[in-house]
Design goal:
With about 425 residues, the chain is α/β, with parallel strands linked by helices. The protein has three domains: about 5-195, NAD(P)-binding Rossmann-like Domain (Rossmann fold); about 205-285, N-(1-d-carboxylethyl)-l-norvaline Dehydrogenase, domain 2 (Orthogonal Bundle), CATH 1.10.1040.10; about 295-425, Rossmann fold. The protein is built from 19 helices and 13 strands. Helix 10 crosses helix 12. The longest helix has about 30 residues, at about 195-225. It is globular, with a radius of gyration of 23 Å. The structure holds nicotinamide-adenine-dinucleotide and uridine-5'-diphosphate-glucuronic acid.
Length: about 425
């Protein structure tokens, strides 16, 4: 497994748990050192235990020596990052291509090289060219096997996938991929074998569609606010139609994370390059980016139009609950917006403070939710952590200078909050 981040580490540990012998590689020495010492470089529920048990069984190892790991492997997964190329929409593929170069040099016998990173259509062709150019003698097949796990539920998602997509026309690779995922096949997880370019596009189409659902309900939430309607009931009413479905219709501050924002951008880039522009995906990406920037304005509004010189508390920094990932998180945009407006900002998150600290210099990082609320003129809830769903509201009210709550995840009931004496606003609800 080349790359030991959210996808590589989780996939590696799960494949080991299926009974395979897995080596997770990373070129970040500190990361490998941490993993060897039993420390997880990311927060993902259940991961520490899964890694520990599979290491103890001798099925999971870590190394920075890619060549040694690849030498005897039947299948090599590439799970390195594909962030947005600085100053563009395009996916930066240099980590993928660098890994392909290194893999090529290390292949000794027939090897299935699998792209698990999210990569633009045609990347598999490039990886194949790189390996072929470097090693004309090598026997190998390049396969696309996109990953659909969600952070925060990654182990469950990997072990209970809605589907496994395998893009290859190589019969030998077909057999190896089938064997790699055999335990899931026995659980009747649906496999879709398809062409490699199709598999690559399935991943972007799926992410863009889910992002569109979120952007759509956020747009409806804005209409609800003007119309005095309740977006949660609208989502329920829409979702009861099986053709629509209730999932991914939770209105909020805008989608974040390391995937939807960058993958919608990259799809727009691919489409433009191919001369098939995607108006819908482009609108989703742009609208969402603007929404995240606009959200600080909701706090300003709740504070009478200005936060200058006021203490503001913010609960939640990660892009959603159960992860420490702050990449493209709405919370970061909101925090920066409030700091720029002159707020004295206090923040708290159960897991992502370390990762957020360098992104929002000037904010005060607090040890818990109640300390965070201390003396604040308003409290914004930005991430829907379970720990924020049942706060001691009396204690919170005592800590706050003004009983003002801006709930950007709709986790409290407006009627209940009013009854308890809060000035409460949320998203798309009267
Ligand atoms: P990540 O940044 O957490 O991890 C990538 C790791 O790869 C890093 O630890 C990095 O040091 C390592 N790396 C880079 N180049 C390397 C090389 N040549 N050799 C060895 N190690 C190398 O990234 P991630 O979130 O795991 O995402 C990986 C890919 O999977 C991306 O394409 C992403 O879009 C896709 N994806 C991510 C998720 C998710 O939930 N995070 C879900 C599905 C798909
Ligand atoms: C997403 C997809 O759900 C995964 O299937 C995919 O594998 C992954 O991207 C990826 O390609 O890397 P993830 O980014 O971990 O997973 O998180 P999601 O649960 O999809 O949430 C994404 C963002 O949308 C979050 O900011 C979340 O708060 C927001 N969201 C989601 C909403 O605002 N409302 C919703 O109803 C659902």
């Amino acid at each position: 497994m080349i790359g030991s981040g959210y996808v590589g580490l989780v996939s590696g540990a799960c494949f080991a748990d299926f009974g395979h012998v897995v080596t997770c590689v990373d070129n970040d020495e500190a990361r490998i050192g941490d993993l060897e010492a039993g420390r997880m470089p990311i927060y993902e529920p259940g991961l520490q235990e899964l890694v520990a048990s599979n290491r103890a069984e001798g099925r999971l190892a870590f190394t920075k020596d890619l060549a040694a790991a690849v030498k005897n492997a039947e299948v090599v997964f590439i799970a390195v990052g594909t962030p947005t190329l600085e100053g563009s929409r395009e996916a930066d593929l240099h980590y993928v291509y660098a890994a392909a170069e290194e893999i090529a040099a290390a292949i000794t016998s027939f090897t299935v090289v699998v792209n698990k990173s999210t990569v633009p259509v045609g990347t598999g062709d490039e990886v194949e060219k790189i390996i072929r150019a470097r090693r004309p003698d090598a026997e190998f097949a390049v396969v696309s096997n996109p990953e659909f796990l969600r952070e925060g539920a990654a182990i469950y998602d990997f072990k209970h996938p809605d589907r496994i997509i395998v893009g290859t026309d190589d019969p030998q690779a077909h057999v190896v991929m089938h064997e790699a995922y055999r335990p899931l096949y026995l659980n009747a997880a649906p496999f879709l074998f398809t062409a490699r370019r199709t598999a690559e596009l399935i991943k972007y189409a799926a992410n863009a569609f889910l992002a569109t659902k979120v952007a759509f309900i956020n747009e409806i939430a804005d209409i609800c606010e003007k119309a005095g309607a309740d977006v949660q009931d609208v989502a329920r009413g829409m979702g009861l139609d099986n053709r629509i479905g209730r999932k991914f219709l939770n209105a909020g501050p805008g989608f974040g994370g390391s995937c939807f924002p960058k993958d919608t951008l990259a799809l727009v880039h691919t489409a433009r390059t191919l001369g098939a522009p995607t108006g819908i995906v482009e609108a989703v990406e742009t609208g969402n980016r603007e929404r995240k920037r606009r959200m600080a304005g909701k706090v300003l509004e709740a504070c009478g139009g200005s936060v200058a010189g006021k203490t503001i508390a913010m609960l939640g920094l990660s892009f959603k609950q159960n992860t420490d990932d702050v990449r493209d998180a709405a919370a970061i945009d909101i925090a920066r917006g409030l700091l720029a407006e002159g707020a004295d900002l206090r923040v708290y998150d159960p897991q992502s403070m370390e990762k957020a600290r360098p992104l929002i210099p000037g904010a005060t990082f607090c040890p818990n939710a109640y300390d965070c609320a201390q003396g604040a003129s308003a409290l914004a809830i930005v991430t829907e952590w379970d720990a924020f769903r049942a706060l001691d509201l009396e204690r919170l009210k005592e800590a706050l200078a003004e009983p003002v709550i801006v709930d950007l995840r709709n986790i409290y009931s407006p009627a209940e909050m009013r009854r308890r004496g809060f000035r409460y606003t949320s998203v798309g609800r009267p």
